[in-house]
Design a protein that fits this description.
Elements: H1 4-14, H2 17-38, H3 47-53, H4 55-72, E1 78-85, E2 90-97, E3 100-106, H5 118-124, E4 143-151, E5 158-166, E6 173-178, H6 179-182, H7 184-188
Parallel strand pairs: 3-4
Antiparallel strand pairs: 1-2, 2-3, 4-5, 5-6
Helix pairs in contact: 2-4
Region (Disordered): 198-219
């Protein structure tokens, strides 16, 4: 059986700190951008409909940015591909490195897994190897985790970001890695809204008694 400590150690050896800092920075940006889009005056959505719609543009942004971040680290052995969920669930990104396969999803409560889906239940079957007594002797086994984020009640930032390794039956998590706790500096940096970034306007005031040059013209 794999210990939680050894799983965490292997995880951070496989995914470098630079990757997670970039991925989490983009995650924060996606939350901000999706919130600005939903609350824009052009859409003029009622709050109830805005709250309902929030996860959809945010998910599209996060999944798209994940592909780009992973692409920048392909030489480090991190790769991504897009799969399609059965029964009209839409596309989703799987990113892989070493012995890990990860997907991304929102959660409704910090202690819960994302809602059950066919592909998540199927992927979680990989985690049977977490309980094998001979796991240390087999280097070819794969572990599945979910990059899970919980929206803040204002919906403009994540209240929690964790990688959860489900049990093989997708009923509870074998292990959880708290990325927000590990990379505090990323979440402590406040993003300045674009509309507030402006060039300062400097007004020059002319003196009351302006000196004249030898030709009699005002300088």
């Amino acid at each position: 059986m794999v210990s939680r400590e050894s799983l965490t150690e292997l995880f951070f050896r496989t995914f470098p700190d630079e990757f997670w800092k970039d991925a989490l920075t983009d995650l924060l940006t996606c939350y901000k951008e999706a919130d600005r889009f939903i609350r824009s005056r052009d859409l003029a959505l009622d709050k109830q409909f805005a709250d309902w719609l929030h996860p959809y543009p945010r998910r599209g942004l996060i999944q798209s940015r994940l592909l780009k971040v992973v692409g920048r680290y392909s030489r480090r052995g991190i790769n991504a591909k897009v799969e399609s969920a059965k029964r009209g669930g839409g596309p989703y990104v799987i990113f892989e490195a070493g012995r890990f396969r990860l997907t991304e999803s929102m959660i409704n409560r910090v202690e819960e897994l994302p809602r059950i889906a066919c592909f998540r239940k199927q992927e979680s079957a990989y985690n049977r190897s977490l309980f094998d007594e001979d796991d240390a002797a087999d280097e070819g086994k794969t572990y599945y985790g979910v990059l899970a984020h919980l929206p803040h009640h204002k919906k403009d930032e994540p209240a929690a970001v964790r990688v959860k390794f489900p049990n093989d039956d997708y009923k509870g998590a074998f292990h959880v890695i708290d990325l927000k706790a590990k990379y505090k500096s990323v979440f402590e940096e406040k993003l300045v809204p674009e509309e507030k970034i402006q060039d300062p306007k400097i007004k020059l005031r002319k003196p009351k008694n302006e000196p004249k040059n030898p030709d009699g013209e005002t300088t």
